[in-house]
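User: Design a sequence. Structure:
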C-alpha cells in the first residue's frame, strides 16, 4: 500500500463504526489492521473445492480473485487471468456437486520479461517503461529491423500469444466458459484480444476486492 495507508485505513474504520475488514496478505503485513480483521486463508469456507497439491502455498490474492469471479459470474466455468507482476491463470471448473479449483499456471508478467533481458544480458537495454505505450500502439511484427523493436516484438507478441492460446484452448467447445481479466495490464490486453472473443472475456479491475468483500 502507499505511504499514509495506515492513517487512511484507521480513519475509515473510525468514520464507519461497526465496519469489518477483510485482508489478503501474500507477504509481510506492515499496515495497520483492526484486531477483528478477517484474514482470508485457504482453510476458509469457499464455494468451490480446492483440488491442488500443497494448497497452503496458494496465494490469498488468487483465492480472493476466484471468489470474486465465482460471485460475479455464477453458473459458468471460469478462467481467471491476473495480469500483474506475474500472470496467474486459475481454472474454476464443474465438479460433481459444486465448482472446483482445478489448478492453474504462473508466468512472468509483461515488465518482468523486459527486466530479465536487461539484467541477464550484457548489452540489451531495459524497455519495460515503454511497454504499455507499445502494447497500446501499433501492432508488433514478427520481423523487426532494430534491437529495440525486436525486443518489443519478442516480448509483446510472446505475451499476447501465450494468453490468447490459453484462452482459445479453454473456450473451445465450452459454451458455459468465460474468461475474467484483472490486474494492472488487464485493460490493455483486453483492447488487443477482447474483440476476438466478444461476450466471452470480461475485465474486472476490482476483482480481488470484490472477493474480499464476499469473504466477510
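Assistant: Done.
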Amino acid at each position: 500500500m502507499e505511504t499514509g495507508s495506515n492513517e487512511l485505513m484507521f480513519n475509515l474504520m473510525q468514520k464507519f463504526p461497526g465496519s469489518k475488514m477483510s485482508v489478503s496478505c501474500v507477504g509481510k503485513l506492515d499496515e495497520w489492521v483492526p484486531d477483528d480483521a478477517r484474514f482470508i486463508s485457504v482453510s476458509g469456507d469457499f464455494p468451490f473445492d480446492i483440488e491442488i497439491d500443497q494448497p497452503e502455498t496458494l496465494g490469498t490474492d488468487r483465492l480472493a480473485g476466484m471468489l470474486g469471479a465465482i460471485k460475479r459470474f455464477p453458473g459458468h466455468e471460469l478462467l481467471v487471468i491476473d495480469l500483474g507482476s506475474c500472470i496467474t491463470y486459475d481454472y474454476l471448473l464443474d465438479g460433481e456437486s459444486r465448482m472446483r479449483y482445478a489448478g492453474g499456471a504462473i508466468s512472468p508478467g509483461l515488465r518482468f520479461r523486459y527486466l530479465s533481458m536487461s539484467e541477464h544480458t550484457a548489452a540489451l537495454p531495459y524497455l519495460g517503461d515503454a511497454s504499455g505505450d507499445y502494447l497500446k500502439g501499433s501492432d508488433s511484427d514478427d520481423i523487426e529491423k532494430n534491437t529495440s523493436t525486436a525486443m518489443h516484438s519478442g516480448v509483446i507478441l510472446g505475451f499476447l500469444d501465450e494468453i490468447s492460446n490459453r484462452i482459445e484452448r479453454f473456450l473451445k467447445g465450452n459454451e458455459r466458459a468465460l474468461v475474467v481479466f484483472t490486474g494492472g495490464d488487464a485493460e490493455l490486453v483486453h483492447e488487443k484480444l477482447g474483440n476476438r472473443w466478444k461476450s466471452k472475456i470480461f475485465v474486472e479491475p476490482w476483482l480481488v476486492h470484490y472477493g474480499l468483500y464476499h469473504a466477510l
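The mean pLDDT is 86. DSSP finds seven helices and eight strands in the chain.
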